[in-house]
Amino acid sequence: MSDIHHPGRRSVLAAGAAGAASLGASWLLTGCTGAASAPVLPVAAQQGAPDRGGTLRIARPPASDAETLDPASALSAYEYLGALYNRLVRVDKDGTLVPDLAESWEPDGKARTWTFRLRKGVTFHDGRDFTAADAVYTLRHILDKKTASPQAAVLAPLIDPDRLRTPDDHTLVVPLRTPHAEFPTLLTHYNCYVVPDGSARSIGRTGIGTGPFKLESFAPAGPGRVTAFADHWQGRPVLDAITFYTVADMSARSNALLAGQVDLLSQTNLDFATARVIAASDRATIARVENGQWYVLPMLTTEKPFTDVRVRQAMKLAYDPEHVVKVALQGAGTAGWDNPVPPSDPAHISAHPEHDPEKARYLLKKAGYEGLAVDLYTSSYDPVFTPMALAYQDSARRAGIRVRVKTAAADSYYTQIWMKKPLMATYWYTGRPVDQLFTQVFRSGSSYNETAWSDKDFDALLDRARRETDDTRRRELYGEAQTFVIDKGGAITPMFADRLVGISRKVRGYAEHGFEFDYLGIGLKGA
Amino acid sequence: MLSFLARRIAAALGTLLLASVLVFLAVQALPGDVATQVLGKDATPDAVAALRGQLGLDRPAWERYTDWVGGALHGDFGTSLVTGKAVGGEVSAYLGNSALIAGITILFAVTGSIVLGVLAGLYRDRWPDHLISTVSLVGMSVPEFVVATVLVLCFSIALPWFPAVVLYGPDASVGQLLPAVWLPALALAVVMAAYIVRMARTSVIDVMASEYVTTARLKGLSTWRVVTRHALPGALLPTLHVIALNVAWLAGGVAVVENVFNYPGIGKLMLSSVQNRDLPVIQAIALVSSVVYVACNLAADLATMALNPKLRTRGRTR
Q: Start and end of every ABC transmembrane type-1 domain (chain B) (predicted)?
């Protein structure tokens, strides 16, 4: 349970590919036609303006039977958060920070103290005014050990909860323990939604926030409903209400969409066969979250043979990411070239070593691992894992690496395989700002450091980048950090994939990227 | 007769006791420490120690077992590790929903299959028999989730007559569940009926060839009377056991079908608690399933005895 740390991963953990049961309508419909004759999937959902009003029905996988509306919790019901709450800052489609409840923010000269000017005239759903006290309380709630928030590991080394200050009702001052020029990006995380002062005990049930919708009902792992909040500071949302239904099984979710019982499948990356069935239906179609999924083959750097950096380099040089994109994604994605920072991120660098099986062979020979044979674990947890593993296996053969692809049970994949087996297939949602990404997944000792990689020089480089207040120079340092990870790290990143989202043909204004979902503008046409 | 009854009930109780031991061992003897298994690798030592205390893992196994069985006899199955609610109440809410499906399934399957089985038996080797036998063979061979998926395709996606999935939680009312009950019940009934049809057909053929049926015919009774008054009671006897076994099978068969329809029943609860490693819930469900199994078999034995004079009177002749 403690591994469940981002929506993408939670989803199917609960859904579990119940082996047989996950065999859905898609299999029956496309089983005999094969992929060759398949139609091309649509690139975007229906365009145009929605009608005012209406109720959107969303099918979602449950986070857990004990899920809660507390945004800071590891078991938060993800879909509700963006509808009910706001953060201080959020991320724009091009990766830049934009105001949410904070109108502006600036550091002192050394990026040691950050001052946030908060929006005035914002009210919570219960009618109270939003002030700096709520912002302070939200940060303290995340840092509170009792909350056990996943984001605490990122924020606790930086913030002393007792030193947060509120000079006036609409100013928040955050003194940091160590300088950090990218600090506000860490507050865009979905654990950082703002809750009212003193609400720790009740927020999991009441869901009182400042967001465009207010809670009408909520049952853990059951149905729930939110209705438009007329006094929302950005104005009233297009929809009258959203009903959230919990459907654990992925094929049951697709069936509900095909039968017209729901309008949108959340946290569901459809396999190509199901996506085609949905795209061909009269009621529903496919929308994409471009490069929404970051696929990784993490090598445990504490396990042989991956303790040797030359073996890790060989594993990366040995395969062709373009081949993996073509085979596993049928082209619906972008080659990653082992850089975990997605191409849409402003900090992304495009430089990378070229595919070079001969050099891989040479490195392996020098390391004493000529003719290396490794096990690569995969599961039915996500539809792309196994095709990705097989494409890697096929491509790496040219460097003399024999990869044995092994399938593990989906329900215990993230407890028994992830961070336990030396080589496996996994994914994350993209949308983490670069510092959050490196701190959470690559820095020594982080609980989500899935390659168990620990390099003092890399940590020092991150510290230097954080301290650097010159934007251009800092971007260069994060570029160096990417080169460092590509060169020495344990994560093989073959690709970023589009997430295939099942959506009703009546839905208009669907916009989702990273962890941002536009609840304000989404609506229905002719419902 | 009384001693037979007593022996049979004692055997049932013994089976249940054995089942409870096996369930307890199977769940508690998972490889590795159960607390770490539940909490995962990242758990803090404090959390593991707290859970060990909560599960009573620091006490000897036999003591934990007697506590558990003692509690279960009073309807106390402990508290769920995930929701923190009482397991008994949770399981019974889901069990009630499953009973709705099971009841309708049994009604469909038993009446339908006996009628079809008798027809096939009476028209042995003619076209009604061939048709019924072939269809029931297909029903037997195709797994229930495929049947369920085909039904969804036909009757909720192509023809929007029934909902494809249930969108309500475990506390849904019967009125909310009723429209969604028919497809899962039909899927289960198709698979279940197949076995009963085959059995009923064989029995009817046997009985129709027996001397007392021939006698009845020679007396000049109509076919309808021969079948309903003389053949059917005899033919139903062996079928009873097959029905009982199939009703017991439902306890497990619903798991997959409920998942396809997102139906908030015992099967869905079992799946999610296995995935969450919610041990007290898994134990309770396993025990409830074995109770259903044993009860069905006991009921079948007792009914057989009631219908079969040989068994009924054995005590007296000895």
A: 95-300
pLDDT below 50 — which residues of chain A?
1-38
Q: Domain B88-264 is of which CATH architecture? A: Orthogonal Bundle (1.10)
Minimum CA–CA partner of A62 in chain B: B272
Q: How confident is the model at residue B251 (pLDDT cuts 50, 70, 90)?
A: confident
Residues A456-473 have pLDDT tens digits of 999 999 999 999 999 999
> Cα B104 vs. chain centroid, distance in angstroms?
13
CATH of domain A89-204: 3.90.76.10
Query: Nearest Cβ partner of A252 from B37, B80, B261?
Result: B261
Domain locations along chain A: 6-68+211-283+505-524, 89-204, 291-498
* Interface membership of B38 toward A (CB under 8 Å): yes
Which residues of chain B neighbour A256 with C-beta distances below 8 Å? 164-165, 167, 262
Whole-model pTM over 0.80:
yes
3-state DSSP helix/strand/coil % of chain B, to nearest 5? 80, 0, 20
Q: Are the folds of A89-204 and A291-498 the same?
A: no
Which of the 8 DSSP states describes residue B22?
H
Judging contacts by C-beta atoms under 8 Å, the chain B residues touching residue A16 are 271-272, 275
CATH class of domain segment(s) A6-68+211-283+505-524: alpha beta
* φ, ψ (nearest 5 deg) of residue B241: -65, -40
Q: Which residue of chain B is at minimal alpha-carbon distance from A259? A: B157
Residue B92 confidence (pLDDT) above 60: yes
Give the Cα separation of B124 and A40 in Å (integer).
53
Shortest Cα–Cα distance, A118 to chain B (Å): 37
Give A117's strand partners. A104, A171
User: What CATH number matches the domain at A291-498, 3.20.20.80, 3.10.105.10, 3.30.420.10, 3.30.450.40?
Assistant: 3.10.105.10
